[in-house]
Amino acid sequence: MWQQQLIQLRARPRGFHLITDEIENAVIQFDAVTIGLVHLQLQHTSASLTLNENADPTVRQDFEAWFNHAISEDTRYFRHTYEGPDDMPAHLKSSLLGTSLMLPIRSGNLALGTWQGIYLGEHRDHGGSRKVLLTLQGE
After folding, report:
1. Among the four residues 38, 85, 86, 117, which has the most C-beta atoms within 10 Å?
2. Closest CA to 50 of 77, 83, 75, 17
3. What dotted CATH number matches 2-138?
């Protein structure tokens, strides 16, 4: 069985944000699946998805600090700056982390580890709302 749903995430400030609850709520709306996989595809090139620590918010703060240090907005050789100094750094961060995740489904729910949560990496100062396409395959 295949099912698909497009969800719209509200606009968030720059940084890393837990969106696990929003994804879980969307998965619950699918027809019951005992076992399967859900593919998440963020339909943007200046944000990212990743799976990591869900309990301590300083992990997300450290992610933001590290990526901002590793890919500085004042890099003089960037040419793609039409939408501002955060434009090209956002594309690079998106490519490094990726825009998709494949996650297991067990008994109709995400089967994540105890301390795992889904992050939206918002890499723009004003990125706006984001869309995620969920594609579920299972039985």
Report:
1. 38
2. 17
3. 2.60.120.460
